[in-house]
């Protein structure tokens, strides 16, 4: 498989194809860990667990607890198993205590039976299946998961968003089942996860860390979703994986900022799963699971449309569906075809003419109402400082949006992203104030941040709050002082869209939509904000 998988939804029947084309079975001594150097006694062909398990290939290393992940053969039952080998000196009380707690948590989690996690067959400790001289603090024995390493699946390129959501859903469901019982699975390391031939992500090397929490599982799900969408790992660095890029505030850049075709909801869910609840993060696995289920429903709807289109391939050359009736003669077919083409041409000309009239009325008439619900507001400094404002170019998606507030509490901070989610049914709204600005505060706004500095030409604000006065300001950081920002556009919003032409195309990574006057009732609402970069 070479090149990028086409952007868009991948039908369910292709999920297995996407996975199995990257399926890898390593020969003895060659694993996903890339022949990592481990303890001298952990080599292919050696036996552990008092001689019961013969090591075949190493598939990873969790350095946090010195856990080596191996495929092995059970010499008694003659079947392959997955081993998590906790390496360490039994005389080290700290390491031995941590390993003992990890084994206890694994035994508790072993009661969970779900396709998203391998069945734990046995848990061994020193003196209980492990000889004192083996150099091991513990062994977790699980069913071997056939398929492909997660790291290999995204080695060439990220997956389409719909495929990523479908792959992750079973693992998220396993986490949800465990959390209902108060148990932690421990899925925050990519090499512990494998992809089965039927297209499921599975925790193949169980073993939650001693200090792992339920939130760590949610964070792990978000990290895996981020990895599937971008090919980059957003948590602590993992062997063989590039780390996710960071924004100036130290947070990971949203997947949509790297690949604009990623749906906003999936991109936001990945980032919010990595943050704590205090800053608007996703707190439970059920919240992420709902996002994945909606993504799957959208994919199924796309497949239904594709299926209808595929059915038309059974049509005859004249466009009629297959029938047992006597076919019309060729002259009749040609006459019908000519009539159809003529009608189509007339309709096309009509549509083009209508579009032309709309464009003329939009750009050529400054009279009230000529442009429909869209109002164009020029920048305050254009007339004197910059007679030729920047020419609008391509739209650009904000990497993140948050409420900017200089006094009091932020207004609806968890709803800020609704102003850039592309959904006109959602919006961000200010609080309802008893007195107009600046009686209680000088204003309130939304700070949009971008993956890199961008020269802007225009901002488009969709709002039902007539009379709201907004300023567009550049900012040197995500949380600057108001006096550090610079006004490059100003307008009074009208119902519908207001296009603000900016008087500066100086690149900036942060753009502030600052409300200085509220609408009637001392409350304002913003449905959508669009950003157009300056044409190069």
From TrEMBL:
<protein>
    <submittedName>
        <fullName>Membrane protein</fullName>
    </submittedName>
</protein>
<keyword id="KW-1133">Transmembrane helix</keyword>
<feature type="region of interest" description="Disordered">
    <location>
        <begin position="302"/>
        <end position="331"/>
    </location>
</feature>
<feature type="compositionally biased region" description="Basic and acidic residues">
    <location>
        <begin position="412"/>
        <end position="421"/>
    </location>
</feature>
<keyword id="KW-0812">Transmembrane</keyword>
<feature type="compositionally biased region" description="Acidic residues">
    <location>
        <begin position="310"/>
        <end position="319"/>
    </location>
</feature>
<feature type="transmembrane region" description="Helical">
    <location>
        <begin position="337"/>
        <end position="357"/>
    </location>
</feature>
<feature type="region of interest" description="Disordered">
    <location>
        <begin position="408"/>
        <end position="431"/>
    </location>
</feature>
<keyword id="KW-0472">Membrane</keyword>
<dbReference type="InterPro" id="IPR011009">
    <property type="entry name" value="Kinase-like_dom_sf"/>
</dbReference>
